C-alpha cells in the first residue's frame, strides 16, 4: 500500500514538474519573441531618424572640408549654410521623427509610436478596425502573444484629437508593455519624468503628465461621453474621487479643462484586480508648437 502511495505521489510530482516546466518555457519563449518583435519594430521606427543624423553629419563634414580660411567668401558661405539649416528645420518641423509609414507596411493597424523616458515604454500603438480585444492577445505584427500591444479602441480617433484617448496595455511580469506605468506611483519619479511623446505619420505630440491614479474599473469610454462637456469635466473630477487615494497622485500645476486634449494610459494592478492604474497627460505641443 505504501509503495503504491509513494508511486502515486512521485508520479504526481513528476507531472507537476512537467507542467510547471512547460508553462515556464512557454512564458520565456513568449517574452523573448515579444521582445524581439518590438526590437525589430523599434529599429524600423527609428531608422529614418538615424539616417537623417548620418546625412547631417556627412553634410557637415563635407561643408567643413570645402572651407578656405583665407577665402573672403567664408563668412557669407557660413551664413548661407545657417539659413539652409533653418529652412530645412522649418520644412521638417511638422513631421514625425518616427517612420510610421514603414511600420504600417508591416501592419496597417499601427498608427502611432509612444515613448516615455525613464520606462521601457517605447512601443507602437495600434487600433484594430473591427475587434477591440484583438491586441490583448496579439502582438503588433498580428502574432499570438500574451504581451499583446498597446492599443486604442474603435471609439477613439487615431488623430488623438478627442478629449480623452484611452490607450490600454498589459502589466507584464517581465516589466514590458505598460508595467512601467506603476513607476509613477512614486511621486519623485513622477515629478522628474512627466513627458510623453506620441508620434504619428504626420505629427509629433508632446504630453505632460498631471495624474497617476489607482482608478476604479469604470469603463471610461462608455461612462464618459467626450462630446458632452459635463462628462469631460466629470471625468477630470473622478480622478480624485473614483480612486484609491493612498495610491494616487494628482499634481496641481497643470490646469486641465474640458477644452484640452488628454491621453489616459491604462493597465491592471496585480493586487487590486478590480482596479485599473492610469496615467493621465495633457497635450502641450504639436510639432514643437504650443497648443
Features:
291 residues, alpha+beta, nine-stranded mixed sheet, 6 helices, 9 strands, 19% strand, globular
What does this structure look like?
The chain is α+β, with helices and mostly antiparallel strands. The chain has one domain (1-291): Sortase, Chain: A (Beta Barrel), CATH 2.40.260.10. 39% of the residues lie in helices and 19% in strands. The chain is built from 6 helices and 9 strands, in the order H-H-H-E-E-E-H-E-E-H-H-E-E-E-E. It has helices at residues 2-65, 74-92, 100-106, 187-192, 220-223, 229-241; strands at residues 110-115, 122-126, 164-168, 195-199, 204-215, 249-250, 262-268, 276-286, 289-290. Strands 1, 2, 3, 4, 5, 6, 7, 8 and 9 form a 9-stranded mixed β-sheet that branches. A hairpin with a 2-residue loop joins strand 8 and strand 9 (289-290). The radius of gyration is 24 Å and the shape is globular. The N and C termini lie far apart (79 Å).
* SSE-based structural type: alpha+beta
Largest beta-sheet characterization = 9 strands, mixed
The CATH topology is Sortase, Chain: A
Distance separating the two termini:
79 Å
Q: Name the helicity range.
A: 25-40%
Gyration radius over CA:
24 Å
Task: Bin the strand percentage.
Answer: 15-25%
CATH superfamily: Sortase
Count, helices: 6
Shape: globular
Question: Which spans have pLDDT < 50 for at least 5 consecutive residues?
Answer: 59-94
- N-to-C order of helices and strands: HHHEEEHEEHHEEEE
State the name of the first-level CATH class: Mainly Beta
Total E-strand runs: 9
Total discrete domains:
1
Q: Name the average pLDDT.
A: 83
- Can you name the CATH architecture? Beta Barrel
Amino acid at each position: 500500500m505504501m509503495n503504491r502511495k509513494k508511486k502515486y505521489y512521485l508520479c504526481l510530482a513528476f507531472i507537476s514538474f512537467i507542467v510547471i516546466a512547460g508553462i515556464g518555457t512557454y512564458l520565456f519563449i513568449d517574452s523573448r519573441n515579444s521582445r524581439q518583435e518590438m526590437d525589430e519594430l523599434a529599429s524600423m521606427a527609428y531608422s529614418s531618424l538615424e539616417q537623417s543624423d548620418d546625412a547631417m553629419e556627412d553634410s557637415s563634414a563635407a561643408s567643413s572640408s570645402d572651407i578656405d580660411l583665407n577665402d573672403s567668401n567664408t563668412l557669407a558661405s557660413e551664413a548661407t549654410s545657417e539659413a539652409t539649416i533653418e529652412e530645412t528645420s522649418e520644412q521638417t518641423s511638422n513631421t514625425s521623427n518616427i517612420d510610421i509609414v514603414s511600420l504600417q507596411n508591416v501592419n496597417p493597424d499601427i498608427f502611432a509610436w509612444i515613448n516615455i523616458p525613464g520606462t521601457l515604454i517605447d512601443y507602437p500603438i495600434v487600433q484594430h478596425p473591427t475587434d477591440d480585444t484583438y491586441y490583448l492577445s496579439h502582438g503588433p505584427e498580428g502574432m499570438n502573444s500574451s504581451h499583446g500591444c498597446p492599443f486604442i479602441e474603435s471609439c477613439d480617433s487615431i488623430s488623438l484629437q478627442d478629449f480623452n484617448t484611452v490607450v490600454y496595455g498589459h502589466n507584464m511580469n517581465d516589466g514590458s508593455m505598460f508595467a512601467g506605468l506603476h513607476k509613477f506611483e512614486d511621486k519623485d519619479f513622477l515629478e522628474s519624468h512627466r513627458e510623453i511623446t506620441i508620434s504619428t505619420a504626420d505629427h509629433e505630440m508632446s504630453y505632460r503628465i498631471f495624474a497617476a491614479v489607482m482608478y476604479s474599473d469604470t469603463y471610461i469610454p462608455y461612462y464618459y461621453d467626450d462630446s458632452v462637456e459635463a462628462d469631460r469635466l466629470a471625468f477630470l473630477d473622478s480622478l480624485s474621487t473614483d480612486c484609491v487615494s493612498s495610491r494616487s497622485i494628482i499634481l496641481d500645476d497643470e490646469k486641465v479643462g474640458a477644452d484640452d486634449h488628454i491621453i489616459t494610459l491604462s493597465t491592471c494592478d496585480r493586487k487590486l484586480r478590480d482596479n485599473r492604474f492610469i496615467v493621465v497627460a495633457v497635450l502641450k505641443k504639436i510639432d514643437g508648437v504650443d497648443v
